[in-house]
Amino acid sequence: MTDSRVDKLATNLQQVLSDQQVDMSHALGELTILIHSRDLLGIAETLRNHTDLAFDTLVDLCGVDYSEYTTNTHAGYKRGDKRFAVVYHLLSVKHNHRLRIRVFVDDNEFPMLDSVIYIWPSANWYEREAFDLFGIVFNNHPDLRRILTDYGFIGNPFRKDFPLSGHMEMQYDPEQKRVIYQPITIEPREITPYIIREEQYGKEET
Q: Which of 11, 40, 136, 192 is the most exposed place for a label (fewest CB within 10 A)?
């Protein structure tokens, strides 16, 4: 968006949302607003229904794990000890505006937010993906199941503390004639590349 259109959208957001938004930032031609988790549903309905905003489409939704983030602030907002956030990418077809919403989850041990599926139906699989990969629970989602990992998978692979090798491995057992799961057996090892050099490599030419 051009700067004038971004400024107009920012003005509309400030007027409509008033003091509900914690922070607003502008980067790469798009606005990002930061809101409290308790205000998510109310703000989402306003963004969709208000004629000056009309964000009728949820383009994407993703989780973020800030546990290894290098600073305790984001866009001037102090996160404190909040580890997880959910980011919503919205589109207004009517106004051709885009908006990003960031919501930090209050509870690190059991991260949970209200589902926005009844406001934007496209959130269905996106919320399942964030649940599967980050372990973020979406309250009132009608079918919150894993969507990318296999049945019986343990853990959430996009969390920063999830081991690169995983916890379990899957293989076919010829005796039981079925696929079985068992604890991972990969041992950490240092891999040294094998380099082939020419016979005269490093020798001075005569």
A: 192
Pull the structure tokens for residue 191: 């891999």
- Enter the pTM of the model: 0.79
Contact 150, 141 (CB under 8 A): no
Q: Which two tokens stand for residue 192?
A: 């040294």
pLDDT in the model for residue 205: 64
Contacts of 9 (CB under 8 A, 6+ apart): 1, 31, 95, 97, 99
H helix intervals, 76-151: 123-134
- Which candidate, 122, 143, 125, places its Cα nearest to that of 55? 122
Higher pLDDT: 152 or 133? It is 133
- Predicted confidence (pLDDT) at residue 110 exceeds the cutoff of 70: yes
Backbone angles phi, psi at 39, to 5 degrees: -100, 0
CA gap 12, 14 in Å, rounded: 5
Mean pLDDT, range 168-178, rounded to an integer: 84
What single-letter DSSP state applies at residue 30?
E
Q: Which residues sit opposite 1 in a β-bridge?
A: none
Beta 168-173 vs 178-183: how paired, if at all?
Answer: antiparallel
89 with 59: CB under 8 angstroms?
yes
What pLDDT was estimated at residue 37?
A: 93
